[in-house]
Design brief:
This protein is mainly α. The chain has 8 helices and 2 strands, in the order H-H-H-H-H-E-E-H-H-H. The chain has a two-stranded antiparallel ribbon. The protein is globular and about 55 Å long. The protein starts with a helix and ends with a helix.
Amino acid sequence: MEITDLIQRFSDSKEKQEKAIFSTLFIAGNRLQTLFDSSIPQITLKQFMLLTMVKQADKELTFTQLGKLLGCSRQNIKKLAEVLEKKGYVQINQQSKDGRAACIAPTDKMKQFFNEIFSEYEKKLSELFTVYDDQEIEQLYKLMMKMYDGIEHFEKSMNHEEI
């Protein structure tokens, strides 16, 4: 069976399309992770996403805040951060406002990574989107951002069921 066979099989109803979209998100994530992990051996895609959040933050973020941004637990962030700290990319500190909360600070090695190695990755990443024209990129961006609304709605309904 080929992916084109699955696409055809799931294209004839809204219900099947929803299932296909959900499956595609999972499969695409796995494929992208495999590609990234093999092309940039210094760090994993999950570690890279954490570094990206640290880089983009305009203030120090706690493990809990980073977990919310990345859609995972603070314990997962802690594990990722500890590995990155051993590799020299980040430093784990106590938050200045709350000594009980840990946060992640960038190191010179992280800055060097983004200045040198990441530029090569950006070139590869742009290849992923060469199949889209500008209008399709804009539409895909809007739809992916709307996906967050759907996820938040789903989370609320799941949390409501637990009560």
